[in-house]
Design brief:
heterodimer, A: about 350 residues, alpha/beta, Elastase, domain 1, Neutral Protease, domain 2, 2 domains, 5-stranded mixed β-sheet, two-stranded antiparallel sheet, 10 helices, B: about 90 residues, alpha+beta, 5-stranded antiparallel β-sheet, 2 helices, about 25% helix
Amino acid sequence: MCHHHRNPMYCILPPYMSDKLGELLGEEKQEARSNERFREKRRSLAAIAPATRVFKIAGDPPKTKLHRELYDAHESPMQIGELIWKEGQKKLPASADAKRVIEGAGNVWSFYKKLFNRNSIDNKGMAILQNIRYRENKFKPFFNAFWDGEQMFYGTGSPKYTNSFTTDLDIIGHELTHGIIDFEAALNYENQSGALNESYADVFGILIKQWVNKTPARKANWLIGENILKGPNALRSMKAPGTAYKKDAVFGDDPQPGIMKDFVKLPNTEDGDCGGVHYNSGIPNHAFYIAAYELDGNAWEKAGAIWYAALQDKRLLKKDADFTAAASATLKKATSLFGKGSAEVKAVEKGWKETGVI
Amino acid sequence: MQITLTQSGGIAGKKLTTSLNTTLTYKEWELLLGAIKIDTTEKSRKRDALSYTLQKKDDKGSITSIDIGAIPDAHTDLFKKLFDGLKPAQ
């Protein structure tokens, strides 16, 4: 039985490692941004919203408990949908989208709480607000899910081409992790730091899925969004970047590189994917996969702990960090947590070496 | 006038594009852009959001970021065709 009172993640680590991790993570966290700014925005938006719809304003979230709210955008560009469920209501909404994101956000919250003693997105109990059935334009099906800096939006896609973007837990985990990244390393969303931002979201998205399904690293398929596209296609493969989808009706072929030799140079513009953040994330994704596979067992226990510790250390992982800096940060954390020359250090090193980053 | 719509970003990160010959006059084009163009100089806090640009064929180097939520009703059919025609960029 675990007797560590501070951090349940330590329960999966030997005491000497858990004590060291405690030092590394430190008690001082970035002063998280207040929820108040967000709630003020919701109030002001609600004030100018059409009077024909009833809008609710997010209440003060409890500070230590999971608090979720779910809004329905009714297949329209509403930035504030209709509140259809909030924490404490026993009866879930009828729609599959609603049930999936409510349960998914609960799993994401539990993953971070139980493994890393993290209290929601900002580590201060921030309410998790999600919007389903969102569209940017009422005539265009929304083939996407995104984090807007304060809340989540999911599209239902189009039955002809995709399933709903609420379908996969790793996508829900990916998007909510973007929020966590903003409160930790706050990696700039451009070029290599942006690709690291994307990769971190993928890494923790897939770990949340593996943790919920109790899938060890060597039995996992390492596919992100495996149920969204039609046929055998997924959105990304961490095991084999560039192979997730082929001849997909919407997206064509998967362009992701898995090694530095194939790094995609794109302009740092909107139509250049901010310097290829969704393209080159394949490289650090693959490095993580190699490390986790090498370590065997559950990927969240060792590789996940190393990556999370690096994300929390702003001295090592700065806003403009490149892949080399991420390699250095994860190697230092692996050394601190598991010891110099340990199997964990060697596995992390193997990941970054085989991808050509170091 | 031939115009090109490009969609970028999103969680898939794949660039999609389409071109269409239209009957838009220069004045109509300018009015359309005036209604839907957005300022992208400020860094967005959005992650995995889709973004859109519009360009006319002879407008070399001038690509305008647009808000597809602001498309005027008069241009709904035009944009329906553009949205339907989006294909992976080469």
